[in-house]
Amino acid sequence: MTEEVRQFSGFMQKINDNEKSTLRLEVEKLRRSEGEWLQMLVRVLDHVFALHTGAVRTGDQRFIEPITNFQNACRDTVRRLGLTPFVAAPDEPFDAERHQAAGNQEEIPAGALVSETIGAGYTFQGKLLRPALVRLREAKAPAAKPEPVENAADELPL
C-alpha cells in the first residue's frame, strides 16, 4: 500500500511539473505577442503623428482639424489599453529621462530647451516605453544691451 501511495505521489508530481512547464511556455508566448502588439501600435501612432505634423505645417485648417480629430481618436483608443503617447511642449526644459535629443549630440548643454517634438514618446501602463524625440535650442541668454552712442559724429574719423 505504501508503495502505491509513493508511485501515485510521484505520478501527480510529474503531472504538476508538466502543467507548470506548459503554463510558463504559454506566459512567455503571451508576453512576446504583447511586445509585438505594442511595437505595431507604436508604429501606427508614429505614422498618425507624422500625418498630423505635416497637416499642421500646411497651415490649412481644412486639413488640420480632421487630422487632429483622427489623431485624438487614435490616442484615446490606445490610452484605454494602457499605451499613452506624449509630446514635449515648445520651450519645455530638456529632461534626459523623458526626451531624446535629435542628431549626434554627445553632451546636452545645461538649460537646453525643447524647440519642437519630432517623434512622440510613449508610456505603457505607467512605464516609459520610448522617450520623445526632440530638437533642442540653447536656453535663452539675456539680451545684451547695446551701449548708447551719445554723438555718432564724435566717433567718425576725420
Class from secondary-structure proportions? alpha+beta
Biggest sheet architecture: 3 strands, antiparallel
What would the principal axes of the Cα set say about the shape? elongated
The helix fraction, in percent, is 40-55%
Query: What is the number of helical segments per DSSP (H or I, 4+ residues)?
Result: 3
Q: Count the domains.
A: 2
Q: What is the radius of gyration?
A: 29 Å
Q: State the total count of DSSP E strands.
A: 6
Report, as a whole number of angstroms, the end-to-end distance: 126 Å
Strand content: 15-25%
Q: Mean pLDDT score, rounded?
A: 85
Q: Give me the side-by-side strand order of the main sheet.
A: 1-4-5
Q: Can you put this structure into words, describing what you see?
A:
With 158 residues, this protein is of the alpha+beta class. The protein folds into two domains: 1-81; 82-140, Roll (Nucleotide Exchange Factor Grpe, Chain A, domain 2). The protein has three helices and six strands; from the N terminus they run H-H-E-E-E-E-E-E-H. The protein has helices at residues 2-58, 61-79, 152-155; strands spanning 83-86, 99-101, 113-119, 121-124, 127-130, 132-137. The protein has a three-stranded antiparallel β-sheet with strand order 1-4-5. Strand 4 (121-124) and strand 5 (127-130) form a beta hairpin. Helix 1 (2-58) packs antiparallel against helix 2. The chain is elongated, with a radius of gyration of 29 Å. The chain starts with a helix and ends with a helix. Mean pLDDT is 85; it is low at 141-158.
